[in-house]
Design brief:
By secondary structure, this protein is α/β, with parallel strands linked by helices. It has six helices and ten strands, in the order H-E-E-H-H-E-H-E-E-E-E-H-E-H-E-E. A six-stranded mixed β-sheet has the order 4-3-7-8-9-10, with helices on both faces. A two-stranded antiparallel sheet has the order 1-2. Helix 3 crosses helix 4. The N and C termini lie close together (9 Å). It binds guanosine-5',3'-tetraphosphate.
C-alpha cells in the first residue's frame, strides 16, 4: 500500500465520520478546513503518479477540488484551470458549458470553462476531492473535449467504491487514480477497500 493511502486511512479514521451509508464527512482537512501540509503530500502523490505522461494542465471543479489540484499542478510545473459552477455575470459569452446532474445533492448545475485556457495542444489531468457517481468528472471530460484537448486521467483524494463512478470512467478508457478507496459506510463505521 502506498504511504499516502496509509496516511489518508489514518486521518479518515481519526477525523472523518460516516453520515448514514452514503456520505463521508471530512470537513476538518478537506471540505471546510484544509490541512495545507497534508494537502501538499496529496498533490505530490498525484503528480508523481502522472509525472511521465506529458500533462500540460491540471483541471478541477470548484470548490473542494482546488486545493489538491493546485498542489498537484505545482509539482507538475503546469497551470491549474478551475471549472466553474457559477458563470461570471460579465464575459460569459466565451465559455464552454455543459449541464451536470448531482446525484448526491439531487440538483442540476451548469459547469463552464473559458475558451482561453485550453486548446488542442493540451493533455489534461482532472483532480477532485471525491469520486462518487462520476457525474462531475464526466461533465469535466465533456468540456475538455469541447476544447479538443486530450485527457490523461483523473485522480481523486477519496473514492467511494460502492458508487459507480470508477467503473463508469474506466469504461470510457480513463486512467482512474484514487488515493484512498472506501468500500462501505455502515453503522457509523468506515471500511476501506483492501
Ligand atoms: P459525482 O460527481 O461523483 O457524481 O458526485 P455527486 O454529483 O454525487 O457529488 C456532488 C457533490 O458532493 C460534489 O461536491 C462531491 O465532491 C460531493 N460528495 C459526494 N459524495 C461525498 C461524500 O461522501 N462526502 C463529501 N464530503 N462530499 C461528497 P460539490 O458539490 O462539487 O461540492 P464542493 O466541491 O463545492 O465542496
Amino acid at each position: 500500500m502506498e504511504e499516502i493511502t496509509k496516511l489518508l486511512q489514518e486521518k479518515i479514521l481519526t477525523e472523518g465520520s460516516a453520515k448514514g451509508s452514503e456520505i463521508l464527512k471530512v470537513d476538518s482537512f478537506i471540505n471546510h478546513q484544509v490541512d495545507p501540509a497534508f494537502m501538499d503530500l496529496i498533490g505530490k502523490a498525484i503528480a508523481d503518479h502522472f509525472s511521465q505522461q506529458g500533462i500540460t494542465k491540471v483541471v478541477t471543479i470548484e470548490s473542494s477540488g482546488i486545493a489538491p489540484a493546485l498542489l498537484c499542478a505545482k509539482y507538475l510545473g503546469v497551470p491549474m484551470v478551475i471549472m466553474k459552477k457559477q458563470p461570471s455575470a460579465i464575459l460569459n459569452d466565451h465559455l464552454y458549458h455543459t449541464e451536470i446532474t448531482s446525484f448526491t445533492k439531487k440538483t442540476k448545475y451548469e459547469l463552464t470553462m473559458s475558451m482561453d485556457y485550453m486548446n488542442e495542444n493540451d493533455h489534461v489531468l482532472i483532480v477532485d476531492d471525491f469520486l462518487a457517481n462520476g457525474e462531475a468528472a464526466t461533465g469535466a471530460m465533456r468540456l475538455i473535449r469541447q476544447a479538443h484537448a486530450t485527457i490523461a486521467g483523473i485522480s481523486v483524494i477519496i473514492e467511494k467504491s460502492f458508487q459507480p463512478g470508477h467503473e463508469k470512467l474506466e469504461a470510457q478508457g480513463l486512467d482512474v487514480y484514487p488515493l484512498v478507496q472506501i468500500a462501505a459506510l455502515e453503522d457509523g463505521k468506515i471500511f476501506f477497500k483492501d
